[in-house]
Amino acid sequence: MIERYTLPEMKQIWSEENKFRKWLDVEIYACEALAELGQVPPEALAQIKEKADFDVRRIAEIEAVTNHDMIAFTTNVGEYVGEAARYIHLGLTSSDVLDTALSALMKEAGERLVTRLKQLREVLLEKAEEHRHTVMIGRTHGIHAEPITFGLKMLLWVDETERSIRRMKQAVETVSVGKISGAVGTYANVDPGVEAHVCARLGLKPARVSTQVLQRDRHAEYLTAIAVIGSTLDKFATELRSLQRTDILEVEEPFRKGQKGSSAMPHKRNPITGERISGLARLLRGNALAAMENVALWNERDISHSSVERVIVPDSTIILDYMLAKLIDIINNLQVYPENMLRNINRTHGLIFSQRVLLALVEEKGFSRERAYELVQRNAMQSWRTGESFRDLLLKDGDVTAQLSEEEVDELFDFSYHLKHVDEIYKRFGL
Fold it and tell me: Over the stretch 38-95, which tens digit does the pLDDT of each residue have?
Protein backbone atom coordinates (compact mmCIF):
# COMPACT_ATOMS: atom_id res chain seq x y z
CA MET A 1 0.00 0.00 0.00
CA ILE A 2 1.55 3.30 -1.12
CA GLU A 3 0.92 6.06 1.39
CA ARG A 4 -0.57 9.27 0.02
CA TYR A 5 1.52 12.38 0.38
CA THR A 6 0.67 14.70 3.25
CA LEU A 7 2.90 17.68 3.73
CA PRO A 8 3.44 17.39 7.52
CA GLU A 9 5.30 14.06 7.23
CA MET A 10 8.53 15.53 5.83
CA LYS A 11 7.82 19.09 6.90
CA GLN A 12 7.61 17.95 10.53
CA ILE A 13 11.25 16.88 10.37
CA TRP A 14 12.18 20.48 9.62
CA SER A 15 9.79 22.15 12.05
CA GLU A 16 11.18 24.55 14.63
CA GLU A 17 9.94 22.19 17.32
CA ASN A 18 11.88 19.23 15.93
CA LYS A 19 14.99 21.33 15.30
CA PHE A 20 15.14 22.56 18.89
CA ARG A 21 14.38 19.04 20.12
CA LYS A 22 17.49 17.82 18.31
CA TRP A 23 19.50 20.69 19.79
CA LEU A 24 18.28 19.71 23.24
CA ASP A 25 19.20 16.07 22.59
CA VAL A 26 22.76 17.13 21.75
CA GLU A 27 23.02 19.26 24.89
CA ILE A 28 21.64 16.51 27.16
CA TYR A 29 23.82 13.80 25.64
CA ALA A 30 26.84 16.07 26.10
CA CYS A 31 25.88 16.47 29.77
CA GLU A 32 25.67 12.68 30.11
CA ALA A 33 29.20 12.33 28.78
CA LEU A 34 30.50 15.15 30.96
CA ALA A 35 28.91 13.48 33.99
CA GLU A 36 30.80 10.28 33.20
CA LEU A 37 33.97 12.37 33.14
CA GLY A 38 33.09 13.88 36.54
CA GLN A 39 32.50 17.38 35.16
CA VAL A 40 28.74 17.40 35.84
CA PRO A 41 27.48 16.29 39.25
CA PRO A 42 25.02 13.37 39.12
CA GLU A 43 22.30 15.39 40.82
CA ALA A 44 22.72 18.19 38.25
CA LEU A 45 22.47 15.70 35.38
CA ALA A 46 19.30 14.27 36.90
CA GLN A 47 17.83 17.77 37.17
CA ILE A 48 18.77 18.58 33.57
CA LYS A 49 17.25 15.37 32.19
CA GLU A 50 14.09 15.84 34.22
CA LYS A 51 13.42 19.52 33.60
CA ALA A 52 15.12 20.47 30.32
CA ASP A 53 12.60 21.81 27.83
CA PHE A 54 11.96 24.84 25.63
CA ASP A 55 9.24 27.00 24.17
CA VAL A 56 9.57 28.01 20.52
CA ARG A 57 7.83 31.35 21.01
CA ARG A 58 9.96 32.20 24.04
CA ILE A 59 13.15 31.42 22.10
CA ALA A 60 11.99 33.82 19.40
CA GLU A 61 11.38 36.53 22.02
CA ILE A 62 14.88 36.14 23.48
CA GLU A 63 16.51 35.99 20.03
CA ALA A 64 14.85 39.29 19.13
CA VAL A 65 17.08 40.81 21.82
CA THR A 66 20.24 38.67 21.60
CA ASN A 67 20.28 38.28 17.82
CA HIS A 68 21.83 34.83 18.46
CA ASP A 69 19.70 31.72 18.13
CA MET A 70 21.88 29.38 20.22
CA ILE A 71 22.12 31.80 23.14
CA ALA A 72 18.36 32.34 22.95
CA PHE A 73 17.87 28.57 23.04
CA THR A 74 20.19 27.87 25.98
CA THR A 75 18.72 30.81 27.87
CA ASN A 76 15.23 29.45 27.46
CA VAL A 77 16.30 25.91 28.43
CA GLY A 78 17.93 27.41 31.51
CA GLU A 79 14.60 28.95 32.49
CA TYR A 80 13.19 25.44 32.72
CA VAL A 81 16.19 23.74 34.34
CA GLY A 82 17.22 26.26 36.98
CA GLU A 83 20.63 26.25 38.73
CA ALA A 84 21.89 23.07 37.01
CA ALA A 85 21.66 24.89 33.65
CA ARG A 86 25.19 26.18 34.21
CA TYR A 87 26.44 22.75 33.11
CA ILE A 88 24.56 22.90 29.81
CA HIS A 89 26.72 23.81 26.78
CA LEU A 90 29.83 23.41 28.92
CA GLY A 91 32.91 23.67 26.69
CA LEU A 92 30.82 23.63 23.52
CA THR A 93 30.56 26.13 20.72
CA SER A 94 27.32 26.82 18.87
CA SER A 95 28.32 24.83 15.80
CA ASP A 96 28.90 21.73 17.91
CA VAL A 97 25.16 21.70 18.52
CA LEU A 98 23.99 23.19 15.23
CA ASP A 99 26.01 20.99 12.91
CA THR A 100 25.53 17.77 14.83
CA ALA A 101 21.78 18.32 15.08
CA LEU A 102 21.61 19.26 11.39
CA SER A 103 23.32 15.99 10.49
CA ALA A 104 20.77 14.09 12.55
CA LEU A 105 17.93 15.89 10.77
CA MET A 106 19.45 15.31 7.33
CA LYS A 107 19.88 11.65 8.18
CA GLU A 108 16.24 11.40 9.21
CA ALA A 109 15.05 13.17 6.05
CA GLY A 110 17.38 11.18 3.81
CA GLU A 111 16.16 7.87 5.20
CA ARG A 112 12.60 8.92 4.45
CA LEU A 113 13.62 9.70 0.87
CA VAL A 114 15.14 6.23 0.57
CA THR A 115 11.81 4.78 1.69
CA ARG A 116 9.99 6.83 -0.95
CA LEU A 117 12.43 5.66 -3.64
CA LYS A 118 11.82 2.05 -2.68
CA GLN A 119 8.08 2.67 -3.06
CA LEU A 120 8.68 4.10 -6.53
CA ARG A 121 10.75 1.05 -7.45
CA GLU A 122 7.91 -1.25 -6.42
CA VAL A 123 5.24 0.45 -8.56
CA LEU A 124 7.64 0.57 -11.52
CA LEU A 125 8.32 -3.15 -11.13
CA GLU A 126 4.58 -3.83 -11.13
CA LYS A 127 4.12 -1.86 -14.35
CA ALA A 128 7.18 -3.52 -15.90
CA GLU A 129 5.78 -6.97 -15.20
CA GLU A 130 2.26 -6.05 -16.33
CA HIS A 131 3.53 -4.71 -19.67
CA ARG A 132 6.43 -7.07 -20.28
CA HIS A 133 5.05 -7.94 -23.74
CA THR A 134 3.06 -4.77 -24.52
CA VAL A 135 4.57 -3.80 -27.87
CA MET A 136 5.26 -0.16 -28.65
CA ILE A 137 7.57 1.74 -30.94
CA GLY A 138 10.99 2.76 -29.69
CA ARG A 139 11.95 6.28 -30.66
CA THR A 140 15.32 7.91 -31.24
CA HIS A 141 15.54 11.65 -31.96
CA GLY A 142 11.74 11.60 -31.53
CA ILE A 143 11.49 9.47 -34.69
CA HIS A 144 10.18 5.90 -34.90
CA ALA A 145 13.05 3.42 -34.64
CA GLU A 146 12.26 -0.27 -33.88
CA PRO A 147 9.79 -2.07 -31.60
CA ILE A 148 10.31 -2.35 -27.84
CA THR A 149 7.84 -3.08 -25.05
CA PHE A 150 6.39 -0.63 -22.58
CA GLY A 151 7.54 -2.99 -19.86
CA LEU A 152 11.16 -2.56 -20.96
CA LYS A 153 10.76 1.20 -20.61
CA MET A 154 9.53 0.68 -17.05
CA LEU A 155 12.33 -1.80 -16.34
CA LEU A 156 14.89 0.79 -17.45
CA TRP A 157 13.37 3.16 -14.90
CA VAL A 158 13.55 0.46 -12.21
CA ASP A 159 17.28 0.21 -12.86
CA GLU A 160 17.77 3.97 -12.62
CA THR A 161 15.67 4.14 -9.46
CA GLU A 162 17.87 1.48 -7.88
CA ARG A 163 20.85 3.70 -8.62
CA SER A 164 18.97 6.57 -6.99
CA ILE A 165 18.45 4.45 -3.89
CA ARG A 166 22.16 3.66 -3.69
CA ARG A 167 23.02 7.31 -4.35
CA MET A 168 20.74 8.53 -1.55
CA LYS A 169 21.99 5.93 0.90
CA GLN A 170 25.56 7.00 0.20
CA ALA A 171 24.66 10.66 0.67
CA VAL A 172 23.00 9.86 4.00
CA GLU A 173 26.10 7.97 5.12
CA THR A 174 28.33 10.88 4.10
CA VAL A 175 26.35 13.41 6.11
CA SER A 176 25.72 11.16 9.15
CA VAL A 177 28.59 12.61 11.16
CA GLY A 178 28.77 14.91 14.15
CA LYS A 179 31.34 17.12 15.82
CA ILE A 180 31.70 18.23 19.43
CA SER A 181 35.22 19.59 19.17
CA GLY A 182 35.00 23.21 20.27
CA ALA A 183 35.67 26.58 18.74
CA VAL A 184 38.25 25.53 16.12
CA GLY A 185 38.07 21.76 16.31
CA THR A 186 40.93 21.12 18.77
CA TYR A 187 38.86 19.76 21.71
CA ALA A 188 40.62 22.30 23.91
CA ASN A 189 37.62 22.71 26.20
CA VAL A 190 35.76 19.44 25.65
CA ASP A 191 37.01 15.87 25.81
CA PRO A 192 36.76 13.86 22.55
CA GLY A 193 34.83 11.26 24.52
CA VAL A 194 31.91 13.70 24.70
CA GLU A 195 31.74 13.76 20.92
CA ALA A 196 31.85 9.97 20.74
CA HIS A 197 28.99 9.66 23.24
CA VAL A 198 26.77 12.29 21.61
CA CYS A 199 27.25 10.83 18.12
CA ALA A 200 26.55 7.30 19.30
CA ARG A 201 23.31 8.42 20.92
CA LEU A 202 22.22 10.14 17.69
CA GLY A 203 23.24 7.33 15.35
CA LEU A 204 26.08 9.37 13.88
CA LYS A 205 29.82 8.88 13.54
CA PRO A 206 32.32 11.42 14.91
CA ALA A 207 34.08 13.38 12.19
CA ARG A 208 37.72 12.28 12.05
CA VAL A 209 38.74 15.93 12.04
CA SER A 210 36.79 19.18 11.95
CA THR A 211 37.16 22.90 12.33
CA GLN A 212 34.46 24.87 14.07
CA VAL A 213 32.09 23.25 11.58
CA LEU A 214 31.62 20.03 9.67
CA GLN A 215 33.01 20.46 6.19
CA ARG A 216 30.41 21.44 3.64
CA ASP A 217 31.45 19.06 0.88
CA ARG A 218 29.32 16.57 2.82
CA HIS A 219 26.24 18.74 2.52
CA ALA A 220 27.02 19.45 -1.15
CA GLU A 221 27.14 15.71 -1.86
CA TYR A 222 23.79 15.24 -0.14
CA LEU A 223 22.08 18.03 -2.07
CA THR A 224 23.73 17.01 -5.32
CA ALA A 225 22.41 13.47 -4.84
CA ILE A 226 18.95 14.95 -4.33
CA ALA A 227 19.35 17.05 -7.50
CA VAL A 228 20.44 14.03 -9.57
CA ILE A 229 17.47 12.05 -8.29
CA GLY A 230 15.23 15.00 -9.11
CA SER A 231 16.65 15.00 -12.63
CA THR A 232 15.81 11.32 -12.94
CA LEU A 233 12.21 12.05 -11.93
CA ASP A 234 12.22 14.92 -14.43
CA LYS A 235 13.32 12.43 -17.10
CA PHE A 236 10.51 10.01 -16.22
CA ALA A 237 7.91 12.78 -16.16
CA THR A 238 9.13 14.26 -19.46
CA GLU A 239 8.83 10.88 -21.19
CA LEU A 240 5.31 10.35 -19.89
CA ARG A 241 4.35 13.88 -20.93
CA SER A 242 5.69 13.20 -24.41
CA LEU A 243 3.75 9.94 -24.68
CA GLN A 244 0.57 11.72 -23.56
CA ARG A 245 0.57 14.14 -26.50
CA THR A 246 -2.69 13.99 -28.45
CA ASP A 247 -1.02 12.74 -31.62
CA ILE A 248 0.70 9.91 -29.66
CA LEU A 249 -1.54 9.20 -26.62
CA GLU A 250 0.10 5.93 -25.60
CA VAL A 251 -0.13 6.69 -21.89
CA GLU A 252 -1.94 9.27 -19.78
CA GLU A 253 -1.46 10.43 -16.22
CA PRO A 254 -4.52 10.09 -13.94
CA PHE A 255 -7.38 12.49 -14.69
CA ARG A 256 -9.86 12.11 -11.85
CA LYS A 257 -13.57 12.75 -11.63
CA GLY A 258 -14.28 16.45 -11.32
CA GLN A 259 -10.83 17.50 -12.54
CA LYS A 260 -10.66 20.33 -15.07
CA GLY A 261 -7.93 20.72 -17.67
CA SER A 262 -8.55 24.24 -18.95
CA SER A 263 -10.67 27.22 -18.01
CA ALA A 264 -11.34 27.83 -21.71
CA MET A 265 -11.31 24.37 -23.34
CA PRO A 266 -13.42 21.72 -21.61
CA HIS A 267 -11.85 18.89 -23.62
CA LYS A 268 -8.34 19.36 -22.19
CA ARG A 269 -6.60 16.61 -20.17
CA ASN A 270 -3.19 18.09 -19.47
CA PRO A 271 -0.19 16.31 -17.86
CA ILE A 272 -0.03 18.92 -15.12
CA THR A 273 1.49 16.71 -12.42
CA GLY A 274 4.32 15.60 -14.68
CA GLU A 275 4.94 19.22 -15.60
CA ARG A 276 5.03 20.10 -11.90
CA ILE A 277 7.65 17.40 -11.30
CA SER A 278 9.79 18.72 -14.15
CA GLY A 279 9.54 22.27 -12.84
CA LEU A 280 10.47 21.35 -9.27
CA ALA A 281 13.53 19.46 -10.49
CA ARG A 282 14.93 22.82 -11.59
CA LEU A 283 14.75 24.08 -8.01
CA LEU A 284 16.69 21.03 -6.80
CA ARG A 285 19.44 21.61 -9.33
CA GLY A 286 19.68 25.26 -8.30
CA ASN A 287 19.86 24.31 -4.63
CA ALA A 288 22.66 21.85 -5.36
CA LEU A 289 24.67 24.64 -6.95
CA ALA A 290 24.14 26.79 -3.84
CA ALA A 291 25.39 23.89 -1.69
CA MET A 292 28.57 23.72 -3.76
CA GLU A 293 29.06 27.44 -3.25
CA ASN A 294 28.94 26.74 0.51
CA VAL A 295 31.98 24.45 0.45
CA ALA A 296 34.54 27.27 0.42
CA LEU A 297 34.50 29.02 3.82
CA TRP A 298 37.11 31.34 5.30
CA ASN A 299 39.75 29.68 7.47
CA GLU A 300 38.23 27.53 10.23
CA ARG A 301 34.73 28.82 9.43
CA ASP A 302 32.56 31.72 8.47
CA ILE A 303 28.81 31.98 8.53
CA SER A 304 28.08 32.54 4.83
CA HIS A 305 26.75 28.98 4.47
CA SER A 306 24.27 29.17 7.33
CA SER A 307 21.54 31.36 5.84
CA VAL A 308 21.65 29.36 2.61
CA GLU A 309 21.33 25.99 4.32
CA ARG A 310 18.33 27.10 6.35
CA VAL A 311 16.51 27.31 3.02
CA ILE A 312 18.02 24.74 0.67
CA VAL A 313 18.30 21.71 2.97
CA PRO A 314 14.70 21.61 4.22
CA ASP A 315 13.33 22.76 0.86
CA SER A 316 15.21 20.17 -1.19
CA THR A 317 14.19 17.23 0.98
CA ILE A 318 10.56 18.37 1.16
CA ILE A 319 10.44 19.01 -2.60
CA LEU A 320 11.95 15.64 -3.51
CA ASP A 321 9.64 13.83 -1.11
CA TYR A 322 6.69 15.56 -2.76
CA MET A 323 7.94 14.79 -6.27
CA LEU A 324 8.38 11.12 -5.39
CA ALA A 325 4.91 10.88 -3.90
CA LYS A 326 3.38 12.47 -6.99
CA LEU A 327 5.29 10.26 -9.41
CA ILE A 328 4.35 7.15 -7.43
CA ASP A 329 0.71 8.17 -7.82
CA ILE A 330 1.13 8.75 -11.55
CA ILE A 331 2.77 5.36 -12.15
CA ASN A 332 0.36 3.54 -9.87
CA ASN A 333 -2.66 4.96 -11.71
CA LEU A 334 -1.15 5.38 -15.17
CA GLN A 335 -3.53 4.88 -18.07
CA VAL A 336 -1.79 2.72 -20.70
CA TYR A 337 -3.25 2.40 -24.20
CA PRO A 338 -1.80 -0.66 -26.03
CA GLU A 339 -4.17 -0.15 -28.96
CA ASN A 340 -2.70 3.30 -29.57
CA MET A 341 0.81 1.88 -29.29
CA LEU A 342 -0.02 -0.61 -32.05
CA ARG A 343 -1.68 2.10 -34.13
CA ASN A 344 1.43 4.26 -33.86
CA ILE A 345 3.72 1.38 -34.81
CA ASN A 346 1.74 0.98 -38.04
CA ARG A 347 1.77 4.69 -38.89
CA THR A 348 5.05 4.33 -40.76
CA HIS A 349 3.74 1.55 -43.03
CA GLY A 350 6.34 -1.01 -42.02
CA LEU A 351 9.42 1.23 -42.31
CA ILE A 352 10.55 0.15 -38.85
CA PHE A 353 11.60 -3.19 -40.35
CA SER A 354 14.13 -1.61 -42.75
CA GLN A 355 17.15 -2.82 -40.77
CA ARG A 356 15.91 -6.42 -40.92
CA VAL A 357 15.66 -6.22 -44.72
CA LEU A 358 19.10 -4.63 -44.90
CA LEU A 359 20.67 -7.39 -42.79
CA ALA A 360 18.93 -10.15 -44.74
CA LEU A 361 20.41 -8.86 -47.99
CA VAL A 362 23.88 -8.54 -46.48
CA GLU A 363 24.08 -11.61 -44.23
CA GLU A 364 21.93 -14.09 -46.16
CA LYS A 365 22.23 -12.96 -49.78
CA GLY A 366 25.84 -11.76 -49.85
CA PHE A 367 25.19 -8.16 -50.90
CA SER A 368 27.67 -5.46 -50.00
CA ARG A 369 26.34 -3.22 -47.26
CA GLU A 370 26.41 -0.22 -49.62
CA ARG A 371 24.36 -1.99 -52.32
CA ALA A 372 21.87 -3.39 -49.81
CA TYR A 373 21.48 0.02 -48.17
CA GLU A 374 20.77 1.61 -51.54
CA LEU A 375 18.02 -0.91 -52.36
CA VAL A 376 16.33 -0.64 -48.99
CA GLN A 377 16.61 3.13 -48.70
CA ARG A 378 15.09 3.89 -52.11
CA ASN A 379 11.99 1.92 -51.20
CA ALA A 380 11.90 3.39 -47.69
CA MET A 381 12.06 6.94 -49.02
CA GLN A 382 9.27 6.21 -51.51
CA SER A 383 7.15 4.88 -48.62
CA TRP A 384 7.87 8.11 -46.68
CA ARG A 385 6.81 10.23 -49.67
CA THR A 386 3.73 8.30 -50.77
CA GLY A 387 2.49 6.50 -47.66
CA GLU A 388 2.57 3.20 -49.53
CA SER A 389 3.31 -0.01 -47.64
CA PHE A 390 7.06 -0.56 -47.37
CA ARG A 391 6.47 -4.32 -47.71
CA ASP A 392 4.47 -3.87 -50.91
CA LEU A 393 7.10 -1.60 -52.41
CA LEU A 394 9.82 -4.16 -51.72
CA LEU A 395 7.75 -6.85 -53.43
CA LYS A 396 7.38 -4.58 -56.49
CA ASP A 397 11.15 -3.98 -56.69
CA GLY A 398 12.69 -6.52 -59.05
CA ASP A 399 16.16 -6.08 -57.56
CA VAL A 400 14.73 -7.09 -54.18
CA THR A 401 12.47 -9.93 -55.34
CA ALA A 402 15.37 -11.41 -57.28
CA GLN A 403 16.89 -12.09 -53.87
CA LEU A 404 13.97 -12.40 -51.41
CA SER A 405 10.75 -14.37 -51.85
CA GLU A 406 7.41 -13.08 -50.57
CA GLU A 407 7.58 -15.54 -47.68
CA GLU A 408 11.05 -14.32 -46.75
CA VAL A 409 9.91 -10.69 -46.86
CA ASP A 410 6.90 -11.48 -44.65
CA GLU A 411 9.19 -13.12 -42.12
CA LEU A 412 11.26 -9.93 -41.94
CA PHE A 413 8.14 -7.98 -40.86
CA ASP A 414 7.57 -9.99 -37.67
CA PHE A 415 7.52 -8.11 -34.30
CA SER A 416 8.66 -11.15 -32.37
CA TYR A 417 12.15 -10.95 -33.89
CA HIS A 418 12.80 -7.67 -32.07
CA LEU A 419 11.45 -8.91 -28.75
CA LYS A 420 13.01 -12.37 -28.56
CA HIS A 421 15.43 -11.38 -25.76
CA VAL A 422 12.97 -9.45 -23.60
CA ASP A 423 12.58 -12.27 -21.07
CA GLU A 424 16.34 -12.59 -20.82
CA ILE A 425 16.59 -8.92 -19.81
CA TYR A 426 13.89 -9.45 -17.19
CA LYS A 427 15.80 -12.35 -15.68
CA ARG A 428 18.55 -9.88 -14.72
CA PHE A 429 15.99 -8.36 -12.33
CA GLY A 430 14.91 -11.69 -10.94
CA LEU A 431 11.65 -11.56 -12.94
Answer: 999 999 999 999 999 999 999 999 999 999 999 999 999 999 999 999 999 999 999 9
pLDDT 10s digits, 2-34 = 344 445 689 999 999 999 999 999 999 999 999
Which CATH number goes with the domain that contains 363? 1.10.40.30
Contact 53, 17 (CB under 8 A): no
Does the pLDDT at position 264 exceed 70?
A: yes
Which residue, 296, 319, 342, sits at the end of a domain?
342
Q: Containing domain of residue 386, as a range?
A: 351-412
Query: What kind and span of H or E run contains 143?
Result: strand 143-149
What is the per-residue DSSP string for 204-240? -EE-SS-SSS--THHHHHHHHHHHHHHHHHHHHHHHH
**Residues designated as active site:** 141, 262
DSSP 311-322: HHHHHHHHHHHH
Question: For position 118, which CATH number holds?
Answer: 1.20.200.10
Do 65 and 129 lie in one domain? The reply is: no
